[in-house]
Amino acid sequence: MRTLLCPTPETTRAAGRSLGARLQPGMVILLHGDLGAGKTTFAQGLAEGYGIGDRVTSPSFALINEYRTGDRHMVHFDPYRLEYAAAMHDIGWLDYVGGDALMVIEWPERLGDSVPIPYLRVRITASDDGTRSLELTSDPPDFVRTYEEAWP
Fold first, then answer.
1. Whole-angstrom Cα distance, residue 2 to residue 41?
2. CA dihedral for 6, 9, 12, 13, sign (positive or negative)
3. What CATH number does residue 88 fall under?
4. Is residue 152 part of a domain?
5. Domain residues for 98?
6. Is residue 89, in this structure, part of any structural domain at all?
7. What is the mean pLDDT of each run of 10 residues along the chain (152 residues)?
8. Phi/psi of residue 60, each to 5°?
9. Which of 2, 80, 96, 117 could form a disulfide linkage to 148, CB 3.0–4.6 angstroms apart?
10. What is the dihedral of CA 13, 19, 25, 30, to 10 degrees?
11. How many CB atoms lie within 10 A of CB 26?
12. Residue 145 lies in a domain
């Protein structure tokens, strides 16, 4: 497990950019955190580091936003508004599993047991002063070792 403190939204975005530069097509990134914790800010940096040139926005209402730049493909999921995990199956999210897209999933706990493994998990916790604490873990647990160097 690696933890990083980010005092500003830009440092949260920079942490995403640093991790994104190390990711490979088909990987799964889970973003945990309360509303307003900085998940979308982190996802924006992740996309930049991964090579996505499009402006990344929260998929809260669309559920799935898809981005392509050259040979880079990223799919950003947000099942927060879904009442049950099976609804993600209904909208076709499994069509992306095992493909070439980097999968970034906000609110992955809404998916129940449907989260693909292996994955990297970023837990974002906001403090009262605006500082974000980012905790990087994975399943399987040793998978994170390859990516820990992204954060000093």
1. 19
2. negative
3. 3.40.50.300
4. no
5. 2-139
6. yes
7. 91 95 94 92 96 82 83 86 60 74 88 82 94 94 86 72
8. -55, -40
9. 2
10. -70
11. 15
12. no
State phi, psi for 7 to the nearest 5 degrees.
-75, -15
Is 71 domain-assigned? yes
Amino acid identity, residue 46? Answer: L
- What amino acid is encoded at 84 in this protein? Y
**Stated pTM of the model:** 0.89
Q: From edge to edge, which strands make up the β-sheet containing 72-77? A: 2-6, 132-139, 119-126, 28-32, 102-106, 72-77, 64-69
In this structure, the number of other CB atoms found within 10 A of the CB of residue 33 comes to 20
- Which residues, in sequence order, are bridge partners of residue 137? 121
Domain total of the chain: 1
Count of other CB atoms within 10 angstroms of residue 148: 14
Question: Quick one: which of 118, 20, 30, 102 has its CA closest to 65?
Answer: 102
C-alpha pair distances (Å), 117 with each of 91, 121, 130: 20, 11, 32
* Whole-number pLDDT of residue 86: 55
Residue 22 CA to chain centroid, in angstroms?
13
Question: Rounded to whole angstroms, how far apart are CA atoms 36 and 103?
Answer: 21
In whole angstroms, give the CA distance from residue 8 to residue 38: 10
pLDDT number for residue 83: 63
